[in-house]
């Protein structure tokens, strides 16, 4: 039980860097947000292209994270724990999370450059939990 708790806490603490960058949520599929941003047809097409381009990469990165998480949990559950294999599993997990964070950040950048400054500011205002962030 103690090992499961340690693995859970480790997984949660490591998952924080791989959260979506501030301002990135799947707003492009929210018709209300798209309408409020007053996107041009060209912007909509470009956004769809960028999202379509990154989708396979993000799916693969997420799958790598899930496999690495499972491997790490399996290593922690071994008795006795092989420190070398567990350290390798930790490194694989960190690498997978880093890859996912990089892909999400690159997607965010590609989408950001397609928006005007006014649209970006409006998108930030419309972001879920935006008011909660202001309270921090």
Q: Can you write the helix and strand succession as a string?
A: HHHHHH
Number of strands: 0
Please, how many helices?
6
Tell me the fraction of residues in β-strands, as a range: under 5%
Largest sheet: none
Stretches with pLDDT under 50, minimum 5 residues? 3-18
Over all CA atoms, what is the radius of gyration?
19 Å
Q: Structural class, from secondary structure content? A: mainly alpha
The CATH topology of the domain at 39-125 corresponds to Four Helix Bundle (Hemerythrin (Met), subunit A)
State the share of residues found in helices, binned by percent: over 70%
Q: Give the overall shape.
A: elongated
Second CATH tier, the architecture of the domain at 39-125? Up-down Bundle
Task: Give the rounded overall mean pLDDT.
Answer: 84
Describe the overall structure:
The chain is an all-alpha fold and about 140 residues long. The protein has a domain at about 40-125: Four Helix Bundle (Hemerythrin (Met), subunit A) (Up-down Bundle). Helices cover about 75% and strands about 0% of the residues. It has 6 helices and no strands. It has helices at about 1-15, 30-35, 40-75, 85-110, 115-125, 130-135. Helix 3 packs antiparallel against helix 4 (about 85-110). The longest helix has about 35 residues, at about 40-75. Mean pLDDT is about 85; it is low at about 5-20.
Features:
mainly alpha; 76% helix; disordered N terminus; Four Helix Bundle (Hemerythrin (Met), subunit A); 136 residues
């Amino acid at each position: 039980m103690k090992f499961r708790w340690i693995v859970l806490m480790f997984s949660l603490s490591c998952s924080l860097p791989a959260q979506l960058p501030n301002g990135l949520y799947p707003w492009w599929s929210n018709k209300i947000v798209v309408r409020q941003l007053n996107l041009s047809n060209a912007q909509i097409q470009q956004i769809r292209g960028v999202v379509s381009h990154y989708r396979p990469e993000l799916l693969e990165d997420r799958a790598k994270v899930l496999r690495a998480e499972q491997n790490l949990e399996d290593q922690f559950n071994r008795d006795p724990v092989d420190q070398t294999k567990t350290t390798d599993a930790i490194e694989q997990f960190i690498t997978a999370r880093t890859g996912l964070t990089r892909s999400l950040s690159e997607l965010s950048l590609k989408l950001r450059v397609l928006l005007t400054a006014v649209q970006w500011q409006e998108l930030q205002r419309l972001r879920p939990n935006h008011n909660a962030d202001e309270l921090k």
